[in-house]
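Suppose a colleague, Dr. K., hands you the sequence of a protein chain of 245 amino acids and asks what its three-dimensional shape might be. Before reaching for any lab equipment, you can write down a predicted structure in token form. Begin with the sequence itself:
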Amino acid sequence: MNEVQVVVAHSERATLRVGDVFLKVDADQARIDAEVEAMSLAPVPTPEVLWRKPPVLAIAAVPGTTLGRLGGPSTGSPAAWAAAGAAIRKLHDAPLPPGVGRAGRGVGELATELDAECALLVANGLLPAELVTRNREVAEAALRPWTPVFTHGDLQIAHVFLEGDQVTGIIDWSEAGRGDALYDLATFTLGHEEHLDDVLAGYGAEADVDLDVIHAWWAAGPPAPPADVLMRRARHLLERVQHRP
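The predicted structure, expressed as tokens, is then:
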């Protein structure tokens, strides 16, 4: 008998796995609608939608494995990272979807979020104020005008599956929409910064990729529920600042 595995669960939504089926439970029907629409429009491999019965969406598991996890070692070859970069570029070159995604938040909204999270890091004693201030200054470079593209919006390394050097599926499209291409690239390489060159090789040498903005998004940290934001942000912030001249 297949066991029920809790993949993620928090106050907004939960994802369960039963065998080769993922059940996404989300009280926000609009978010589920947006995810299904994004998967139907994306020109990259996405999970098959098996059935929908609000508030549940059932999707099939995709074959392959991820390149690693945030905070853990990478298991992928340079060719696999480049293949992921090529898939991301294909998504970014696709016609714009109808809605704005997480990567499309305005400068004012982003600045407010960053300031609030920096204040929490200091208030909870997770990092010295001087380190948080320095990282916030680096993150400022991300707050600039950009040309919208079709973005995934939550392109963590655990959401891209490959077999060898072939992308077999990209999952979790609830944050997809029009947004900043560099947000996707930074999210995908966060915690695995040494593979950025491999990803950009697949993404295309002719692309206008501002590395300062990538670094700024790394400083801003990953999209995650609030508790995870604090813990991951503290760990990665401390690692980056310690190694920065």
